[in-house]
Design brief:
This protein is α/β, with parallel strands linked by helices and 275 residues long. The chain has one domain: NAD(P)-binding Rossmann-like Domain (Rossmann fold), CATH 3.40.50.720. It has a seven-stranded parallel beta sheet with strand order 3-2-1-4-6-7-9, sandwiched between helices. The protein has a two-stranded parallel sheet with strand order 5-8. The protein is globular. The model has no long low-confidence stretch (mean pLDDT 93).
């Protein structure tokens, strides 16, 4: 049995992660900004679930959550940084405040939690940090530049973190889901308020009012949760866990395209070395 702290458990993948970890016999600190949205999970597992209100953009909330987890269960063994939401806008359309909040939630929020749990993990020489990214970090669709940017930043951070903590007996895993049947493309999706007509045929095609894919995504959140818990429980695991056939296919297509681009411009790239 280990203790998991999972952010963003009210719906979607976060809820599935929490319920699956509890079903497997783990303790889970079940968090959401609105604690009422996770009461039902805690009520089903009163001995092993600790519901907490947690806004990852607030230092006090993060400190209080880790302190409560330590007091109740002795520490955090697995941190899952899952809380987040979508934001769609052409780069030119993105509102400054909205973009800052996006980075605060998806990048600085996980950093707060990572820093809060690492001292305990280092002290026990055991622990896993899971940062939930997105296939968007790989494919960067038109209209999702800012969302892709925060997830790419989180992935780069995770890779450096992994190299730093592996010698300490700790692990860091980046999870890249594809499309799953959650509220991500519904309630959890935001966008710029003022579209620019020039981008109607590119970023405009991904605006909420143009979307038709919500509810038809290929991924099953319960299967994703089962896969993640399996990987964490194994005790090893990859740096990059890609979830969903659509994500695997998109990942490989993106890597091939990048390789082709490098090959096409290799002569110029190599020409910059000192003679």
């Amino acid at each position: 049995m280990s203790t998991w702290l999972i952010t963003g458990c009210s719906t979607g993948l976060g809820r599935a992660f929490a319920e699956t970890a509890l079903e497997r016999g783990h303790n889970v600190v079940v968090t959401a900004r609105d604690i009422g949205s996770v009461r039902d999970i805690a009520d089903a597992y009163p001995e092993r679930a600790l519901p907490l209100a947690l806004d990852v953009t607030r230092d006090a909330d993060v400190s209080a959550a880790v302190r409560a987890a330590t007091e109740r269960f002795g520490g955090v063994d697995v941190l899952v940084n899952n809380a987040g939401y979508g934001y769609r806008a052409a780069v030119e359309e993105g509102e400054d405040d909205a973009v800052r909040t996006l980075f605060e939630t998806h990048v600085f929020g996980p950093i707060r939690l990572i820093k809060a749990v690492l001292p305990g993990m280092r002290g026990r020489a055991s622990g896993t940090i899971v940062n939930v990214s997105s296939i968007g970090a790989r494919i960067s669709p038109e209209g999702s530049g800012y969302y892709a940017a925060v997830k790419a930043a989180l992935e780069a951070l995770t890779l450096s973190l992994r190299k730093e903590i592996l010698p300490l007996g700790l692990r860091a895993i980046s999870v890249e889901p594809g499309g799953f049947r959650t509220d991500f493309a519904g309630r959890s999706l935001t966008q710029s308020a003022k579209p620019i007509a020039a981008y109607a045929a590119t970023a405009g095609l991904r605006r909420i009012e143009a979307g038709t894919g919500h509810g038809t995504q290929p991924g099953d959140p319960v299967k994703a949760a089962s896969a993640l818990v399996d990987v964490v429980d194994r005790g090893d695991g990859p740096f990059m866990l890609v979830l969903g056939s659509d994500a695997v296919d998109s990942f490989r297509t993106a890597i091939r395209a990048l390789g082709d681009d490098i090959d096409a411009w290799e002569e110029i790239s190599r020409s910059t070395d000192v003679d």
